[in-house]
Amino acid sequence: MPSTTARAGAAKEFAVHVRSLFLRRSLLAATLSAAVAAPAFADESATDLSGVVVTATRTAQTQDQTLAAITVIDRAEIERLQPSSLPDLLRGTPGMALSNNGGPGKSTSMFLRGAESDHVLVLVDGIKLGSATAGSTSIQDIPVEQIERIEIVRGPFSSLYGSEAIGGVIQIFTRRPEGSFVPSFSVGAGSYGRFTGSAGVAGRGKNGWYSLEASHDQTRGINACRVGAAAAFAGCFVDQPDKDGYRNNALSLQGGYRFNEAWDADARVFRAEGHNEYDGSVNNSSDTVSQIAGGRLRYRPGKDLGFTLSLGQSADLATNYYNNAYSSRFDTHRELGSLQADIGAGGGLYSLGYDWQHDKVDSNTDFERNRRVNRGLFGQWQQSFGAHSLQASVRRDEDSQFGGKNTGSVLWGWDFTKALRLTASYGTAFKTPTFNELYYPGYGNPGLKPESSRSVELGLRGTHDWGHWSLNAYQNRIDHLIAYDASIGLPGNVDRARIRGAELSADTELAGWIVRGSATWLDPRNDGASSSHGNILPRRARQSGRIDLDRRFGAFSAGGSWYVAGRRYDDLANRHPLGGYATTDLRVAYAFAQDWKLQLAVNNVFDKRYETAWYYNQPGRNTMLTLRYQPAR
Fold this sequence. Notes:
By secondary structure, the protein is mostly beta strands. The chain has one domain: Maltoporin, Chain A (Beta Barrel). It contains six helices and 33 strands. Strand 1 (52-53) and strand 2 form a beta hairpin. 50% of the residues are buried.
């Protein structure tokens, strides 16, 4: 079941479906026992489940109220973990696997719950971001210094968001003010000629708030593609043994104002500009832009009635070069609008909404059609009945290219003790074909229909004085997957997949150490009628896991992360294995003054050689030293 792609190429790459990474059950059981065992020694829960989240329902609720499987990463955790990039931050979160084409800034694909890389919806401050030609989102271009919080909701959510939300939804929130006037500053240097810098200012008054943040990141990089790729006809298909650098400049500006008790508004702009060098025979460098702009107006005349109007636009721009000579351009411009009403009645919450999306492709490639419009109408009901909770939603999408699509979901929760909740859910979802799949000259098929899925899930979670844990098991059947159809010589809706999986996560505080762990078991199978029937889907390991440990010692803090991923394959035929691996990252920090901190991160401490995509290199041992100024919250 090949995926779409070729963001930077002259010809569309439908071939490899990027799949996840996972590890041996015995290792995971042993390592995760540190996170779930010994509650008698825990001082308090390491995770605050009272924080407000919005992605799982499109309404505000606390994390412990959610019925969906959700992971939240806040700013404090980002600074504690010291990730070098957004992909490094996401790596090893429950259900998540990543495939990277050669180091910092290189094309990175996400696979959430074993679904395709274009089966996850990415929002930045509520605005959809991504490429309408490739179908992917350039997460490697979103700097972690710009991020305040991330909400990862796993499972089918097309009934709330429309296309792409087969594996789940990831929403990224940019930096927000924590006080009346909060400046921030950081500068860092590290291996591979890396230099980073950021500066920002934010503030909050009686009725208004604002935030401005700028960041810079550059590196000489590593040789992205392993020598020998040309002879093996693999990876980048060429031998270009050089350093492949990366540069990123980003700016975010946002603010809001409350006019009175009923009316408030906010607006935001985010733009990240990147320059990326890589190995290739058609293109070997690109200039990219990821951008959003939008505003929101809210009217709440009473506690049981609220209206939200959101307008925005996003852009995913890529200009490609070969040996510094212009070769191609693929730009997505997206306009979006949404109107949502939330009504409290009978102890429940009812939401009705209308979404509008217009996609336009600008390219030197002459697509048969370069624009389309989607309109979506949805409704949701949330209600609690004593110890039971229910969330049900339905949606109808009308697309100017393929027509209509209905989706729905039901989630149920039962608090059968004060500490334990049982959850169950069923949902359907879909993914609209990309412009490359539909209209790429000589390769597209305008007759393609959406890919669709149906998923069931059962979960159990516990919240205790010592910490929190959750276990979720699911099955997802994906139909009408787009793959090459030899009978017509074009892509067609001819493939299927059956994905079964389980996710375990836990956190606690043990003898002063904050301990977080997660493990994923996955059985992602090709379920189509092709010769690859029954094979493991490419680049998806069947087991993976991560452990994070952190502790403060007065002005000092120290921590480490261990990530493990099992053996997987790079191709549909399962002929090219990618070995399992484990990496260890260590970090220390010293708060030498009230608002100043010095941080040191050593990643891949044991210099492990591994690949997440065949013939693409990954960084060896590397270090990063950062000086950070942030007034104490």
